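pls ignore typos typing on phone
adenosine-5'-triphosphate + seq
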Amino acid sequence: MTLARGEILLRVSGLTAGYARPVIGPLSFEVRAGEVLGLWGRNGTGKSTILKAIGHAARVFAGRIEAAPGLTLAYLEQQPTRFPRMPVTGHELLRSARAARTDAPLALAAILHRRLDRLSGGQYQLLWVWSALATAADLVLLDEPTNNLDPDAEARLVDLIVRPGDGRAVLLVSHERRFLESACSRIVAVSADRESGCSS
Ligand SMILES: Nc1ncnc2c1ncn2[C@@H]1O[C@H](COP(=O)(O)OP(=O)(O)OP(=O)(O)O)[C@@H](O)[C@H]1O
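k done
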């Protein structure tokens, strides 16, 4: 898909989402090409549920999620499963994720030849996030990508996310306001109070 900067890629209107019962909403926001949008809220407010609803893994009770025609998504769930003890390397992970970008930052490039089950939690997390960012997806959904990261690694994560791209967008979920302020061009606050929805 050819992306024009500022074009709306995803529009969420009056969304109420959940599982057996609604847990979040109503809320509305849009994601535009080229932006990094953050969804901020306290633990348990329903941030992950919003991403799951976008990824068709949670139920939509009301409202709409509209994607631009042909939009491709990459979705990284919270707390990625560690690979089992197998001789799978970072290079192989990127190949299986169909990573299109070859400009991995040096710190990551240096560990790509190593087995995934021998990386530290932080190294693994950065590589895992890069495996989504390096795809050709138009919109990358990242759920709590700071898991396992110390402040230095968190700064490297911000560098990965804000790298100049080709118009694709990132939608980030986190309870860490400071991290979102470093990484995002815009932040939407999500409230657990289902009457108050959200605000930019
Ligand atoms: N699969 C599920 N089935 C039923 N309820 C769920 C399910 N997953 C999450 N919930 C509930 O939905 C509510 C919102 O959870 P969600 O994970 O979306 O919040 P969150 O804001 O992402 O939280 P955190 O910051 O702690 O990750 C919680 O009350 C949670 O218990």
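The chain has one domain: 7-189. Residues 195-199 have pLDDT under 50 and may be disordered. more later
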